[in-house]
UniProtKB/TrEMBL annotation, chains A, B, C, D, E, F, G, H:
InterPro entries: P2CMN_synthase_LarB, PurE_dom. Residues 123-253 form the PurE domain. This is Nickel pincer cofactor biosynthesis protein LarB. It holds the Pfam family AIRC. It comes from the Bacteria.
Length: 253, 253, 253, 253, 253, 253, 253, 253
């Protein structure tokens, strides 16, 4: 209802003062996300409506108590809920109340996935990983995309030092709609994959390596400097961000 | 033709030895991009077929002679061709032979755009810029996307220090299919836009600023650490990369 | 008493030699902080008189023994005393002698707050925090300001990725006299708040985040590059410094 | 007028439909800054009302044309206007139309200062500078504060390597209401001044130095790590930001 | 002559005191390189004997005068002499006296190559380059190796973004005895080549790129973190060092 | 068999259709490394044939389970197998099945060395170490080279602060075919050794040191900037990479 | 004995061939430090003669076994011996054999100090420390200087934030012959002391601090950029190096 | 005169009120350096008395006008005066008034040296330089020390890549009282010299080099991590600081 209509209807009496006030407030509110204020956190309760998936909880830096409180509130309201970088203790505290809650040790994710509908039909997200040590980050990406309703194809340990491992999977990768490349050390895989496919490539540098790796800096800089088209980069070890972005891209049409 | 057919037809005599050899070689070659070897450069002549747009020439670090030679070869073969980070001299050397060639001072791009078809219908790419000083990078992004056949909406100078400038354009930005955010200094615009829209956001840090900006590092790090979903990052000042990726995303369906 | 008066009064005999010497020395001494020399530490015993609050003890890097000795000396002399980055052991060692001593687990602060007078009337300090994980630093700031006699308004978890959480609190923030903004990751909150209010904004980057956060560097650089007026920055995770500066600003008139 | 009143008065007829609409819109608009959209820039035309001083133009990265256009618009509307990091060419282009425009070579500021009222009575801002080479940044700070209506006391070349130069001016500095400390190299002056005064200290690191100065990094880090209370930091060489913040602090009461 | 022989011969009288002293001193001197002391430089006149090639002159940071003096001394004594990072002025000053002196604009090398013998028979050094912009560094490497007597195969512009350009040259590269890989931006070429060949790979990062390239840091870190066996790294843009090392490796047997 | 022969033989009937197909496929396959796909890893089973030594397993970042599975597969197939950066637990899990498996505490290497043939006759690799604290990295290099069939000479604790320790061993070092220099702190040993010998020098910076060592950065940068000819660098603490490269160089002829 | 004498005496027969050879060798050896080769370490047994104090053992990165073996060898031969960065376990292992061995918890030094002669008469070394948390590094410096025979004056906790604490001790500091300044955080103390005294100042940055301290980088850079004359810098937390250098300076005459 | 005496003499009348005031003030003033206040600079006119040499003028960042004004004031008052990092224009402006003024192109120093007395007798300062390109910094150090009255021995181009050049000069270097080592690139010379001599070594890293030299960072870090005793470090390219410190050390007795 626009302002004029509200004014008119109020004047006519078809809207009471309270209803008119509420209608005007509602207009404002549609700009304001509906949130639950826990004091230590404002939970966004309109995000699924606005963005297609409820708020995801970053558990690092929060107390177990805080994480559990927030996740409890969300898991009651939504079928599919994700907590990233969560300790196992968070999972164990949730389990009695939420029998469906799951925990992935590698990805350090706690999640509830009651709704397993695949929303994007045949559209697949490929998660391509340079080495076995990169798998924890890859799984965070893959799991995130799956819980959000996507089909995921995992292609692991195909780093560039043995380029034929990658080339032999090139046709598989080309079948995907979106490609996530996860690599540490020199991070070269993103550029090579970017040159092989015409789909968008989401590059995730990992902190795997040592010495002049500087906790992922080498892979990060390499990926940012990729000379291949269609490559963009998320934060070091940010598997979640890559999975979330892949989900967004996979819904584009 | 598959291997069996080639073998059979050679045995039958419908293929000569030379033709059979050629056919087998051809199968291999389809894996190899067709390139023109100029000695100092291998020009990819199959990229439009493979990726939807011909090779783009990065002119920095090349001599004017080299840039002109490569662009000449490409402009003869394709309608729309882009040279990035080009000096005006490259443009002036091309002009006599290519009357359609254009030069954009701000974006430092030389290009030929004979084909102005919009390939993606109503799908628009929004280029949102924090400040006026970021416009050269924004124009590189916008122009790239336009030359590749996209409709571009420019929304400039809406940085977060006056958040209402941005909010008043939020509905316009939400109408775009893909959003490019260009910002220097603290690079906060990417996170704020990422929280306002559900489309993918391509963040381009710029080197605009001074002091603890460290030539774009502040904006780069801020964008990589964005807590908003759907944000990925390209290199500092890489307007071209953002425009190219936006074109790829805009073609997804 | 100025030099001339001392000389005159000495000559007149209204000041004895000792008294004149003392008076002259006193003038010099007023420039020299009165300190208690513990060998390993010089405790400033005139700071409350000079700066409005006694010396605050930075406990990191000190042995428990050293921290306890210094705090004991100060707590005996002053009502309100703060020890920052203190282990719980320091608190437990003080408790038998100082029943009023308190410990805040989140802020890692040990403190005595016998005097709870609010010194600044209605003038409020707003502590605005991007995410729940930033609360330990925020609490260090808020508690510091409170112990020093200020009224504090806490507005937590209003980061820029959901800008409406912040906007819905903008009027509250504008009521404050000074604003502290605490944020990790991309640190964008400082710029956005700086653009919304006309009060001074003290920005505190936190080390919350991972990867290209580089232990708070991303937020620090972003805040230093803020394009909003009135924003200045303290060290990463320096909640105490922000609280102390806010107290100083809140006393200006 | 609040929503209820508007509704009631409209119903009563004391407000026409248009007036009621306007009143409701006005409430929204007060949140939205009024801006002039130049395409390449959105000029904030309500900032003086909102923040006490009109928008300041950062000229670096803008073309001379863009800077002149924006400054022209602002200088027509306001008495006192500042353009920072401006080339002399900008000034020369403005001079024919704005005979009052001035240019400061050291500070690289172009400005119009028609209104020279001192707004803060006796409240003085001290600008304290470590060395002669830091004067360009100091002058940017001092001039900014002066144009905004403050009284400024310049105390230059009192760096810590000869601490008595500083101590002999300590009483002068203590008379100020706000202190700006400008220093390059090791940036130690901020800590020493911070320990001498009880006023807020705004520290401005400069890029003066060489080698391990790393373009101001040494002074920046030193100032951020200051162990003195009441010190906060702005960007390297950001004299303007310091002057602007000092003006804000000087207006607090 | 060993010590015992010298003693014996001196005793016998076949060596005079002076000769015995000289012989003993000579033994010590053989440890000391014979040098020409120019005051501002000690020219090593025994390096060809010791290391297979005379001293190479790094001209950056030297005055033209100094470079010319040193090169003159060396060019008189040896057939093949190299000056790196030399301005054209050095060449022009040498030309009148050394008609054989040459200058390579791209590589910024001044050199005299009177002896063009290929010393290593069929052993070839492959110089593989990612992009056209890397050619100046590649040419410094290639030219260095050639002047030192090696056969060089140049394979330019085969960067990983179009992996087939590289794969189609893999067999050529495998024919080399030593491989130099020159790449800027993400520097991925070194890892991919390292995985394709069993020869030693000398990786040369270049400063080609911009933004998060940080003047070659991205390629440097990527190459240091290469997960391929047999890859070692020289300084950014150090084509000379790579050519020199390749020469050493090419002489191993 | 080349393509022509296959075609001819198929036509003649000496090859069946299946055999001809297989022969053609085999040609392609020889380009593709034969790998065992474990899901979480692609084990390269042709590397010994291709590169002279089987795949080496980097155990950091892998679970014990993953490391054991991969090493089991490789140890069954090959005599000599190396796992680097392995925990002792990996060794203990392998021991029951592989009685020959060994573990080196200092080098953190697990390995099987059934074949102790020296493959390079008299050619020795010298491993020269600056200090005792660098020995773990040196041993990783030395052990790697030994397991691959090389003779290794260890020269430890001859850092440059007592140059005579090094000079007294110079003749020994000159007898080696390849020299590995392992040094932390200022990393100067690489340059000094590089100036003493004409063989190739592989420099390994270590993270030994503290403060401005920045985890090996000081030694890394020093080695990359070495002004001695013939020095190239591998990653910080990468003893394995140095040993592997030395093996490759030692096989050159 | 010089060469001529040896030759002469051999000829005369006063030296046997063996004695002459030994005498000649001895001359060479005097250039070569006499070392004990433990395989993992070359212990310098001539350093006291050459440099005034025996080799000091850096225990970090060495096994307890290695440290104990080296220290045992040295403690047997010399009265005063130092092991830095030693664990208490090293001390406990030495105690049974060396009842005089001592351990300083703060400085993490193990040492034997049988000879307590003060070698430099009245010449004192002042160790001036910014804060209590810097004491561990200060004690390493002070103890080192004392064990080497110097008189040390400790002046602790006189950081610049309360400049009067320092000024009140200025006359004491001026009485010293050499001044060591130990400071973390902003490291400003070195510059202020450097401006107060005319003696040489050895600045030791410490890693005390957090956030933008970056493990001592802030103090290191500040000290390197000191504008005071006579200040030089050693590594972060290198109390030993400062104490050793102060000993050298204190012996100059 | 002490306070008591002043009081007594005033009482007795031997001091007038004014004289007593002056005497008391004088006592305070002795703490305050006497300075000439030029507005933009406070020139220290008591430094020669206090520190043995007048204030040295750092001309970088100052206008030519400012430098000339300050130098004029000092050159009138003192015989020997130094301006560092001065443009030739400063020299040319001074020449008409100060016929003795000199300019050194390499060192970029302007200076007046009317007094050429050698103050330290036979005590020599050795300036040892790695390469010819380091000479400008070396000359700044050498000239500084000479103007201050020291005898300087220059030993240039003896870098570690040819260690025998250095060893052959070791005895010369050992004759010096203080050693300055100037080196860029890997900066290894400081450690090697530090191990050869027992005198104090002042290490000056230079910015000579390229790539991973990062403008002197490699040499700086190497020198800070020197494992040789007696080495301390000044800022990159700070020849002046080294010369000044050497002068101070050379006066110690």
């Amino acid at each position: 209802m626009d302002i004029t209509s509200i004014l008119e209807e109020y004047k006519k009496g078809t809207l009471s003062l309270e209803a008119a006030q509420a209608a005007l407030a509602e207009r404002g509110r549609s700009h304001t996300a509906q949130t639950a204020d826990l004091g230590f956190a404002h939970i966004d309760l309109a995000r699924q409506e606005r963005c297609g998936f409820p708020e995801v909880v970053y558990c690092a830096g929060k107390t177990v108590e805080q994480s559990v409180t927030i996740l409890t509130l969300l898991m009651k309201k939504y079928d599919n809920i994700i907590g990233t970088r969560a300790s196992k203790e968070v999972y164990e505290r949730l389990l009695p109340d939420f029998p469906d809650v799951q925990y992935d040790d590698l990805a350090r994710m706690v999640y509830q996935r009651k709704d397993t509908t695949i929303v994007n039909g045949d559209r697949t997200i490929a998660v391509v990983t340079a080495g076995t040590s990169d798998i924890p980050v890859s799984e965070e990406a893959a799991l995130t995309a799956e819980i959000m309703g996507n089909k995921v194809m995992r292609i692991y340990d195909v780093g560039v030092a043995g380029i034929h491992r990658l080339l032999s999977r090139a046709d598989d990768i080309r079948k995907a709609n979106v490609v996530i490349v996860v690599a540490g050390m020199e991070g070269a895989l993103a550029s090579v994959v970017g040159g092989l496919v015409s789909q968008p490539v989401i590059a995730v540098p990992t902190s795997i390596g040592y010495g002049a790796n500087f906790h992922g800096l080498s892979a990060l800089l390499a990926m940012l400097n990729s000379c291949a088209a269609g490559v963009s980069v998320v934060n070091i070890d940010n598997g979640f961000g890559a999975g979330r972005l892949a989900d967004i891209l996979n819904r584009m049409r």
